[in-house]
Amino acid sequence: MSNPKTIAVALTGASGMPYGVRLIETLLSAGHRVWLLYSQVAQIVAQQEMDWKLPSRPAEVEAELSERFGAAEGQLRVFGREEWFAPPASGSNPPDAMVVCPCTMGTLASIAQGLSANLIERAADVVIKEGRKLVLVPRETPFSAIHLENMLKLARLGVCILPANPGFYTRPKSVQDLVDFVVARVLDQLGVEHSLAPRWGESE
Hints:
alpha/beta; Rossmann fold; 204 residues; 6-stranded parallel sheet; 15% strand
C-alpha cells in the first residue's frame, strides 16, 4: 500500500470484543498500521466472549496478534495503559484516526469530560483536539439520559457515535456476518476499502 493509514484501536470492557478483534484483523490485512490499546477489563471480556487469554504484557499481545494476522514487522504496535511516552499520547504524533471498539459507557463519559486518566482516554483527547477522526462503538442497551447526553456532547464535537447495531437486510447467516456488518460501518467511517458486507442496492 502506497499510503497506509495509522489507526489507533482501543479495546475496553464493554461486550463486543469480536468487533474489535475483527477490526484489527481487517485493518492489518488491508495494509494499514495499527496502534492497539486495551483496558484491564477488556482482558476479562476477551476471556468471557472469545476464550482468549489476552496477555497483560503489551509485547506479548503484539507478538501474538502479529503472528495470528500475518502483520508485517512494525505494522502492529501495542501500548500499555500507563505508557505516557507512547506516540498516541501526544498531539505531535497523533494517529490518522482512532476507534474505541467496544466502548464502555465509562470510557465514553471520561472522553466526554476530557479526563485523560489513562492512555486510551488521553489518546482520544489528542485525536479530538487535533481534529482527527474518532469513532466510538458503544455496546449498551438501553441508553440512560446520562449516556445520551454524553454521546450528544461528543457528537457535537465531531465524534462519530457508531453503536454496535447490526442490520438484517443483508440476510446474515452467522454471527460472523453480524460482526462484519458493524466492522464494515467502522471501516467506512475510516475511509478504508473493504468487501465485508454487500452494500444497499448492490448485488453481492
